[in-house]
């Protein structure tokens, strides 16, 4: 079974191609940590020493 073909179209954007997806990643990661630990962290970076 062959997967369907996907057409990619890039628009001219001064921010570049990869940058628009970077901003929501930090918020999604923080929300996942909040859901798992029930603790809201107010400062970044959130690392292993902060979570323990």
Compile the SSE list and pairings.
Blueprint: H1 23-37, H2 48-51
How far the N terminus sits from the C terminus, by CA atoms, comes to 46 Å
The main β sheet shows up as: none
In round numbers, the mean pLDDT is 78
Indicate the radius of gyration in whole angstroms.
17 Å
Strand content: under 5%
Question: In total, how many beta strands?
Answer: 0
Q: How much helicity do the residues have? A: 25-40%
Low-confidence stretches: none
Assembly state of the chains shown: single chain
Structural class: mainly alpha
Query: Helical element count?
Result: 2
Q: Looking at the structure, what is the overall shape?
A: elongated
SSE series: HH
Task: Give a concise summary.
With 52 residues, the chain is mainly α. The protein has 2 helices and no strands. The chain has a domain at 25-51.
Report what the structure shows:
By secondary structure, the protein is an all-alpha fold. The protein has a domain at 25-51. Helix content is 37%, strand content 0%. It has two helices and no strands. The longest helix is centred in the middle third of the chain and has 15 residues, at 23-37. The chain is elongated and about 45 Å long. It starts with 22 loop residues before the first helix and ends with a helix. The mean pLDDT is 78.
